């Protein structure tokens, strides 16, 4: 994928240098000293490297969850952002990070779910020993912040958002979101004009429209945050996200902020969300800017600090959001013991918790719908080979924390209703689950059945991607996949064989103990790439890392990353990053 040097030229570089000089001159005229850019560090979220920075020394942690794309290094080339975070750093310990697929974090996995992005937040918090933090989500970052607050209230001091939306596709109940035609125009813009004036970046910060330095930086910020293809994937994923159903499950103190005439996210969207979050505070600011660091930033800072310092923290929350998997088990007496063992190991592999498991039924809790759905698919496939059929239902529900070892009556009622509708070898999900599975690589078809309970109608959908692979589910498979995810094993295998030009699909399947057909399906679901595409992509990213070290020439790097032909390597490199290896080397020298 392309990064900062996608479209770089000398004039753009000069503008960037001038803007850096402008920062220095502006800070020289101010009473406070120029802040030092924090050290960029990395932590692992599964197998993915997440880049983060920490500034400030306040007693309260605040995690900033950026919008569409970000680059935490480039943030420090913008005086307005430097000012904003420096002021926050006087009160909070501020944590900045780039979500997977963007900025300085790993870009191997193109598709990511809200659930995986929640894992990234947790990984960064764990890395800095933060038990609880204020979440500050901007625009798209507000969606994952809201889900995190509902799922992990015990780790959330408060939820703060700016310019957040609940969904990004028009619906009668949410008429402010773009129509499909309007979304298509956005896709076309990304494809044809990514990181250029054709993106109409002025609409994000109208108050800065005449500030050429700011607009040049903003275009560079987007280019360095994501390649055109990565930006396209993120945008399409966002189109499918819908967090409306989980808003009522947010119980932490919540501050929602937005400017009245924001063009990108309508003010009605903020009001809509505020009405559905219990006891939330909604603050409208004058102006049109969608970016919180443009316009009346001092008012925003004052509102944030006043809100956080005035809240009474709740030590424990009685309920939190869980994804619940319920299954009706249809098996022979001979297969029941092995079926039970297989299901238990798969639930553990996906970090789930079984709260009921007998010969006829299973109920398990998961922290998110993606793990629940993929675990259900694997259970269905594995148990078929044991002459067992599963009828599975998946739904999301607030559950009392002290009831995670047994099933409450209202939950039991919903389980019975779902399993009544589910057929053998079928996985049914509720609409709430479907909306949160964007980016999971799954497909759905509407079910003819619906659930009517307590005056509420729950449309159901069928996951249609769970075809039998025909692979023997051996004990080797179970042991290999029990502790680490499939993707982690695949990436480790590719890294181990990085300089082996003969390494391909056949060898990869042997190393991770899975059939070609099953590996193709699973990797497509997780990364939106075929195994061979993923192998090539990982090699190219490793090659790019080696190039930036400036220790080897292009031919040496090609051989070190499994390419026997430097010309073919250059061709693949240009296709992946939008520029040749020699162009990247030249751009790196220019930047220095």
From TrEMBL:
GO molecular function, one term: hydrolase activity
Domain of life: Bacteria
Protein's UniProt name: Alpha/beta fold hydrolase
InterPro entries associated with the record: AB_hydrolase, AB_hydrolase_fold, Homeodomain-like_sf, HTH_AraC, HTH_AraC-typ_CS, Hydrolase_4, Nucleotide_cyclase, Tscrpt_reg_AraC-type_HTH
Organism the protein comes from: Fulvivirga sediminis
Pfam families registered for this protein in UniProt: HTH_18 (PF12833), Hydrolase_4 (PF12146)
UniProt keywords, alphabetically: DNA-binding, Hydrolase, Transcription, Transcription regulation
SMART domains: HTH_ARAC (SM00342)
HTH araC/xylS-type domain span: 488-587
